[in-house]
Amino acid sequence: MRAENVSQKPKFWILHTLLIVLAFFMLVPFAWMILTSFKSLGESVHVPVIVFPKSIHWDNYIDVLYTMPFLTFYFNTIAITALKVLGTLIFSSLAAYAFARIEFPGRNVLFVILISVLMVPGQIYILPLFLIMRDFGWLNTLQAVAVPGMFDAFGVFLLRQFFLSLMKELEESAKLDGCNHLQIYWRIMLPLAKPGLIALTIFTVLASWNELLWPMIVNSSPAKMTLAVGLSWLQGRHGTNYPVLMAGSLMALWPMVLLFLTLQKHFIEGIAMTGTK
Amino acid sequence: MKAIAGRSRIKKENWLWGYSMIAPAMLGIGFFFIWPMIQTFYFSMTRWGDFGTYKFAGFDNYHRLFADHDVWKAVLNTFRYVVLAVPLSVAISILVAVMLNQKIKGLSLYRTLFFLPVITMPAAVAMVWKWLYNSDYGLLNHMLNEFSIQGSRWLTDPQLAPYSIVVVMIWSSIGFNMVILLAGLQGISKTYYEAARIDGAGVMAQFLRITLPGLTPTVFFVFIISLIGTLQVFDLIWMMVGNPSIVKFSTQSVVYLFYDAAFLTNEKGYAASIAVLIFVLVMVMTIIQMVFQKKWVHYE
């Protein structure tokens, strides 16, 4: 996204003052999280407030690892996220291609049904879905979180929009060469849809990593918890030990920050894509 | 004749391709989302026994729902979140987007900072804000004391807690809205601004006559997304308020109430009727927005 010099030229110092004030408001919670995570418990509850810890207390991070199976939480979260991304990419792109390019009876009706799933709030299916998971014997398993998340109506919608925006010429010539739909999808459409696939991957990773309600409902055993649920659990056990809670929070959120900083352009383009298409 | 038969064979073959390619997604979505959706409507008319047994109870749950003070309070709480957080967040986001749509120094740094809360786990966001708001040791009261202002019990005063939560909602959502609005701003043709400049229109006039109208479709989109998201708020309240709490009554959202009934007090039939209520609320609010958009959204 390029900054464009729109013909407005307000006084730049007003602009910067406003932006700095707002940026400060955005930044303070992060700064406080980091500072608190390095304080001793005594420093954290000192009155008046101590802003900078005298020495850096790494023990809070070690405490987190001792009180919770944090490495297991990482593994669970990564495994669930990987499965969701894989399923979403494959199933959504297949369906999106068919909805965008193949004519078959009932196509529009089926697509409207799909969109209706996007419109409804999650609470409308969460309770019976929980009962299904229980009947499967899937409570306290990773698949209870991962498998339903592999089927994503939003993914189908996003990629269909993307496929519709692509030129048809390459496909036409592939058809003349005798390629079937699966070959066209695999060899021509998927490579062209890379920006859409990247955007969908980012959304799926982010949503999966940060999700709280569903994993909390189906997995109550610490061995199967995700990071977000683990944080809720940590808060339940360490209620007021904020240095440890903040250390835990940072340990849970840094991978997304890293991902965002390295793929920033794709994050921004992906979100902009959903808003403008 | 042969050509027509061949064409219809290709057509049939296409159908087969179409159905098999949508099958995995549609079957999964049908089984994991649509079927449970239908079940919720049925469950909302059942009463549940101790061992997961249930029997048909007609509209009993709905009678109870309409008479339940907690439900109406939760609906009002949720509306309060929507009415305060959504317009404020969208307004601030427009301001930020317009400011960042200029050639200024540190542009990408600002954009990164504003976006950071969007990628941060709500559970972690809730915890750090809870800590900032802490009435005894929190940074906020400390800073107020520096200016000789009496601090408050931000999250433990039932009157104040909902507003403290609204601030966090706004903080969390600005970045996402900003990115979409920035994309919308880039879509406004520059020729409009050039024409306006020739006519001698000032910065404010350009903003009001060109930027805002041109941005209305994007603002509408952002509004709908924020509205639906805020109507379903759970994570923040669950983590910031907790259960039990003295501010629960004044802060709990409808989804919180749903979670409570479904998984804590274990009244699954009643919980299903709350889920249906949430569904109706989201639909009604979305339809109202769709109807009113004609009055203020300008499509080119």
Automatic annotation (TrEMBL), chain A:
InterPro entries: MetI-like, MetI-like_sf
Alphabetical UniProt keywords: Cell membrane, Membrane, Transmembrane, Transmembrane helix, Transport
Record keyword Zinc-finger present: no
Membrane topology: Multi-pass membrane protein
Name of a matching Pfam family: BPD_transp_1
Subcellular location as annotated: Cell membrane
Residue ranges constituting the ABC transmembrane type-1 domain according to the UniProt record: 74-263
Transmembrane segments: 12-35, 73-97, 109-133, 145-163, 184-209, 242-263
Signal peptide as annotated in the record: none
Gene3D superfamilies in the record: MetI-like (1.10.3720.10)
Family statement drawn from the similarity comment of this UniProt entry: Belongs to the binding-protein-dependent transport system permease family.
Name assigned to this protein: Carbohydrate ABC transporter permease
Originating species: Cohnella silvisoli
TrEMBL record, chain B:
Pfam families reported for this sequence: BPD_transp_1
Membrane-traversing stretches: 16-38, 79-100, 112-133, 160-183, 219-241, 270-292
Membrane topology: Multi-pass membrane protein
Primary residence: membrane
Gene3D superfamilies noted in UniProt: MetI-like
Keywords: Cell membrane, Membrane, Transmembrane, Transmembrane helix, Transport
Record PROSITE patterns: ABC_TM1 (PS50928)
Cell compartment(s), UniProt: Cell membrane
CDD domains reported in the protein's UniProt record: TM_PBP2
Ranges of residues in domain ABC transmembrane type-1: 75-289
Signal peptide start-end: none
Domain of life, source organism: Bacteria
InterPro entries to which the protein is assigned, alphabetical: ABC_transporter_permease, MetI-like, MetI-like_sf
Thylakoid found in the keyword field: no
Matching PANTHER family: ABC TRANSPORTER PERMEASE PROTEIN, INNER MEMBRANE ABC TRANSPORTER PERMEASE PROTEIN YCJO
Protein family membership: Belongs to the binding-protein-dependent transport system permease family.
Name the UniProt record assigns to this protein: Sugar ABC transporter permease
Originating species: Cohnella silvisoli
